[in-house]
Design brief:
single chain; Glutaredoxin; about 140 residues
């Protein structure tokens, strides 16, 4: 439903005038489908804990500077893996219960989960090489 509304809004943008230059084409790439925002505890259970694929869980906050650097970097690398791993984004201010359950005491905290279990974890910012190694270890590459 939300995608349909977004598409309708996009298609209703003017083709002439001041807003016309802001019109952008978009698609649904594998990267977009690989990354999602967790909506609630039930969504986390369904899409992360019960996932048949490995999942990287990015616990972040809007006010966190390092999170704003790490998040896009991690998303880019997950997209490169073309669906071999998923990425769940959890805002700790919206989902305090999940942060407490997974013992998140600082952000960014990133968990690697397989079959519902945490198999690896790091706290803080990492460079691309370290993130690639983290992801390869998770998918067994």
């Amino acid at each position: 439903m939300a995608q349909r509304l977004a598409l309708q809004r996009l298609l209703s943008l003017p083709t002439r005038g001041p807003l016309a230059s802001h019109r952008r084409a978009f698609g649904t790439s594998a990267g977009r489908r690989s990354t999602f925002n967790v909506q609630d505890g039930s969504d986390f259970q369904d899409r992360v804990v019960n996932s048949p694929k490995p999942v990287v869980v990015d616990f972040h906050a809007q006010w966190c500077g390092p999170c704003k650097i790490l998040g896009p970097r991690l998303e880019k690398l997950v997209a490169k893996l073309e669906g071999k791993v998923l990425m769940a984004k959890v805002d700790i201010d919206d989902h305090t219960d999940l942060a407490i359950e997974y013992e998140v005491s600082a952000v960014p905290t990133v968990l690697a989960m397989k079959n519902g279990d945490v198999v690896d974890k790091f706290v803080g910012i990492k460079d691309e090489d370290q993130l690639e190694a983290f992801l390869k270890k998770l998918i067994g590459a």
